[in-house]
């Protein structure tokens, strides 16, 4: 059975769709992930190192393989498809965007409700040292 030419790009197209769908979080909800590239690199590099090594070992041992039908055939060292690198960048990036956007929205909601300010945790202390629900 012959696959459609687009099939080879499905994995990469899915990663692109994930990035496109979470990109508005950077601007609309002020996630500020792309605006802090050093922080982003510090998050991604350890993940990339660990999981690319893990993949290389698993592929070498025959524990799993990648479908030729849904990948481009462009390989990194140790037989890792470029799509796998895209996955290990895209998914943590989307998760980080979501996490930061939710944090921003929670801060905004708390400030609108007159709740606790950012950085305050737990009950506030009254003059006598007793906890109050502020």
List the helices and strands and how they pair.
Elements: H1 10-27, H2 37-61, H3 82-113, E1 124-125, E2 131-132
Antiparallel strand pairs: 1-2
Helix residue percentage: 55-70%
Strand order of the largest sheet: 1-2
Spell out the helices and strands N to C.
Answer: HHHEE
Q: Largest sheet at a glance?
A: 2 strands, antiparallel
Short summary:
The chain has three helices and two strands. It is mostly helical. It has a two-stranded antiparallel sheet with strand order 1-2.
Describe this structure in words.
The N and C termini lie far apart (66 Å). This protein has a two-stranded antiparallel ribbon. A hairpin with a 5-residue loop joins strand 1 (124-125) and strand 2 (131-132). Helix 1 (10-27) runs parallel beside helix 3 (82-113) and helix 2 packs across helix 3. The protein is mainly α and 134 residues long. The model is unreliable at 121-134 (pLDDT under 50). It has 3 helices and 2 strands, in the order αααββ. The longest helix is centred in the C-terminal third of the chain and has 32 residues, at 82-113. Helices cover 56% and strands 3% of the residues.
Keywords:
two-stranded antiparallel sheet, 134 residues, disordered C terminus, mainly alpha
């Amino acid at each position: 059975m012959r696959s459609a030419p687009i099939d080879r790009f499905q994995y990469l197209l899915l990663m692109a769709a994930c990035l496109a769908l979470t990109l508005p979080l950077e601007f609309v909800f002020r996630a500020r992930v792309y605006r802090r590239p050093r922080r982003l690199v510090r998050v991604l590099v350890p993940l990339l190192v660990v999981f690319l090594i893990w993949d290389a070992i698993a592929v070498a041992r025959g524990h799993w393989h990648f479908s030729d039908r849904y990948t481009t055939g462009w390989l990194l060292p140790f037989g890792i498809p470029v799509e796998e690198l895209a996955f290990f960048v895209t998914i943590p990036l989307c998760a980080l965007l979501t996490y930061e956007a939710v944090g921003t929205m929670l801060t905004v909601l708390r400030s609108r409700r007159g709740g606790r300010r950012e950085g305050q945790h737990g009950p506030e202390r009254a003059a006598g040292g007793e906890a109050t629900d502020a």
